[in-house]
Write a structure and sequence with these properties.
Rossmann fold, 41% helix, 4 domains, 762 residues, six-stranded parallel beta sheet, alpha/beta, seven-stranded mixed beta sheet
């Protein structure tokens, strides 16, 4: 009837999913994709009415608990958080992590959920967390289509699972196509199980168990999943179940038809081997149920489905009727008290005749009506304006809430505690501050663990974890392979299950390998589940300045545009970094902390309350007071700007230097504009490309904070070159802002304002 915008379905996979559901137990986790509707029905975590509610985009989480209408149909999730945003007892429920559309994007998170079981089983200090795990006996179930196994994330996650030996039960629904593209374009040897045969374990080598089964053979499917479950749950060995000869009778989605690309022979084979037809034959032949009885069951099933669809549609429609009717009533009231009554009557009549109206119809009509009476003033107009304000506020909650945590554990609610120092506080290398902090964090909470390349045995490349693997064991401080995407995935999955992972990307330049999963999965998790799930993962990396193209990057603009929904923190030194870690470990939100690469050997005083003090998010700090120009920066640029400010002071230019400290969020109290009100000039400096983070900061200060009102000079951005930084000291100097270029640009700004006082230098 055209009531839904889009549909994508799991027809042809029903029987395999029924078999898999038989071994899915309380405490288990699913990380699948958009064809798993039958599985979700079978485990009791999706009703028919909820299924249709998602199809219609019903925004009530009672009606559509997976996403509150924010995701198209086929995106499944269970609500793992209570009304206060705290984790429920995950061992008492069947759990589904929130789906995403990007193919194979579910794989990194799947690895992490399975990895959590390994930690819960092998770390005895975690056995008391009985609301999170029963000694690691939980399986992480993954599903994927055969074509999506071509994605790098699939191979990376499968390899990592084999290395880690985690209880990951991976099912591939193989229908021989990827939309219109046949198998020979996707997979070596035309079979993912043949491609991955090298992962098969044997008597001498650990690896995967690989099981092949036909998608229409129900008894064999049940046997296959019983075997797979036993291996996974008892032995903690990953299992690949390759479900072959699956059909997809609906085609990819409602936007296409498989008759366009499948041969007549293939279509005939699919009709013959449809799993529901085959299961009906098996029931008649082996279970001895008469065809007439099955016919009656099918008739009843269609009736139940139709009733659920109609009930869901009525509920969706009724959820908007009160606002719709009120808008009509107020429009008619306004029409009777205005000179524009003819035009208003036409608008009202058109709205009244709208078939299946949705929220935007009322909003659009009301705004057109208010434009017509913009020069009038009466009670009816005021009532309509009040209606508009109310529904827009309600729609903000419906469609834009939970970008960040709204619980009492939100990072912005963590109380600030200043660092304190003893009189004889030693000055140490910055790396020693980090090492001492991580020691405290690991000691106080057994749920905290750290993973990453070189993090374990050598304590990371800059020694932040030096000696801590030896002290806390390999389960707490762990080396990984070179696989940035699934390092993040390990953290996401473990954080979903209540752990507090710190996952390291060795250098900021290599964040690109993990950016997609950070953006599509981690950053939007609370948003796309409307507060139903959370993953408070801390991503640790280092960047800004070191040596050359791939160790000196500062792609902050890329992150700011991609990672809304998580915090981006840029401490200028290790003391600030430790304070951010303390804040985040008290919160329930994900974040990335970018430590300064050139700061590990710089001297800092060791705080006496290293494990307690917190640095608030979104609160800039004035590093140097001044009266002529406000300079806002962050990270390693703080030292560059302070050096330049010292030189500018010698020629009579007084600079107020502000460290933004965090970029997401940015200056939540709008303190920077107060500095601009004093100096009347604004410079925004960083090491990103022109138009990157400096332009973001300018929009925040000039537009959002209204600093344009107080400017006597054009606002200025100072950024790096558009190319990557060249190698060596000269390369760094000529690629990135340096004290001399900062001096020159700010001097030129002042020269334009007072040319006699500041004559040309060059």
């Amino acid at each position: 009837m055209g009531k839904a915008k889009f549909g994508i379905f799991g027809d042809g996979k029903e029987v395999a999913q029924l078999a898999m559901a038989k071994v899915f137990k309380n405490g288990d986790f699913r990380s699948g994709y958009y064809r798993d509707q039958t599985f979700m029905f079978a485990i009791g975590q999706l009703s028919l009415q909820q299924y249709f509610a998602q199809l219609y985009a019903h925004t009530d989480i009672e009606a559509e608990p997976a996403s509150g209408g924010r995701l198209m149909n086929g995106h499944f999730a269970t609500r793992m958080l209570d009304d206060q945003g705290k984790l429920k007892n995950l061992t008492e429920s069947k759990n589904s992590s929130a789906d995403i559309s990007p193919t194979a994007g579910q794989m990194p998170r799947l690895l992490g959920m399975a990895y959590a079981s390994k930690l819960f089983r092998n770390n005895k200090a975690l056995h008391s967390f009985t609301n999170l795990s029963v000694n690691g006996n939980e399986i992480a179930f993954g599903t994927i289509g055969n074509a999506s196994t071509s994605e790098g994330m699939f191979y990376e996650a499968m390899n990592a699972a084999g290395v880690l030996q985690v209880p990951m039960l991976m099912s591939v629904w193989d229908d021989a196509y990827g939309i219109s593209v046949p198998q020979e374009y996707h997979t070596t040897k035309g079979s993912i199980s043949k491609t991955l045969a090298g992962l098969q374990r044997n008597e001498r080598e650990k690896g995967f168990e690989i099981i092949n089964v036909k998608g229409w053979d129900y008894p064999a499917l049940v046997e296959a999943y019983l075997r797979a479950e036993k291996i996974c749950r008892e032995e903690h060995v990953p299992v690949l179940v390759h479900v072959d000869e699956v059909t997809q009778p609906q085609g990819h989605s409602t936007s296409g038809s498989h008759e366009r690309y499948k041969s007549k022979e293939r279509l005939a084979w699919e009709a013959e081997h449809d799993c529901l037809r085959k299961m009906r034959e098996w029931i008649i032949d082996e279970v001895n149920i008469l065809p007439d009885e099955l016919d009656d069951i099918e008739v009843e099933a269609r009736k139940v489905a139709k009733e659920a669809k109609e009930k869901s549609w009525r509920a969706f429609n009724e959820s908007m009727q009160a606002d719709f009717k009120e808008a009509l009533s107020l429009l008619k009231e306004l029409s009777s008290s205005t000179v524009a009554s003819n035009e208003l009557n036409a608008l009202t009549e058109a709205l009244e005749k709208t078939q299946n109206p949705i929220r935007l119809d009322g909003i659009k009509t009301v705004k057109k009506a208010l434009r017509l009476v913009r020069n009038e003033s009466n009670a009816a107009k005021t009532n309509l304006i009040n209606w508009l304000k109310r529904v827009e506020e309600e729609n903000e909650k419906r469609y834009s809430s939970y970008l960040l945590s709204e619980s009492e554990e939100a990072a912005l609610k963590v109380e600030e505690i200043k660092p304190s120092y003893k009189e004889d506080a030693p000055e140490v290398d910055g790396r020693e501050v980090m090492q001492a902090f991580f020691d405290i964090a690991l000691a106080r909470d057994p749920l905290v663990f750290a993973i990453g390349e070189d993090v374990g045995k050598i304590g990371d490349v800059n020694q932040g974890f030096a000696g801590l693997q030896e002290k806390y064991g390999e389960l707490r401080v762990t080396d990984t392979g070179i696989r940035e995407c699934t390092i993040i995935g390990q953290g996401i999955g473990a954080a979903l299950r209540g752990m507090r992972p710190i996952t390291e990307i060795q250098y900021l330049d290599y964040l690109l390998y993990a950016l997609q999963i950070m953006s599509d999965d981690l950053a939007c998790l609370q948003y796309r589940t409307k507060g139903g799930q959370k993953a408070p993962l801390i991503i640790r990396t280092r960047g800004h300045r070191l040596e050359g193209v791939w160790h000196s990057g500062s792609p902050i603009g890329m992150m700011l545009h991609s990672l809304r929904g998580m915090h981006v923190l840029t401490p200028r030194n290790m003391t600030q970094a430790a304070g951010f870690y303390n804040t985040l470990l008290q919160s329930d939100e994900p974040a990335i902390i970018i430590e300064c690469l050139n700061g590990y050997r710089l001297k800092e005083k060791m705080p006496s309350n290293l494990g307690e003090y917190t640095v608030p998010l979104g609160v800039p700090e004035i590093l140097r007071e001044g009266s002529d120009v406000t300079i806002v920066t962050y990270g390693s640029m703080c030292r560059v700007i302070l050096d330049a400010a010292q030189e500018l002071d010698k020629v009579g230019i007084s600079c107020e230097v502000i460290d933004a400290q965090s970029l997401l969020p940015f200056d939540v109290h709008h303190s920077i504009v107060e500095s601009v009100r004093k100096t009347n000039r604004l410079v925004l400096a960083d090491e990103d490309v022109p138009g990157g983070a400096s332009a973001y900061m300018m929009q925040k200060v000039v537009e959002e904070q209204g600093a344009y009102r107080y400017l006597d000079s054009q606002p200025l951005t100072i950024a790096a070159k558009e190319h990557r930084p060249a190698y060596a000291s000269d390369g760094d100097y000529f690629s990135k802002p340096n004290p001399e270029t900062v001096f020159d640009k700010i001097y030129a700004m002042m020269q334009e304002a007072e040319p006699e006082r500041f004559p040309a230098i060059y």
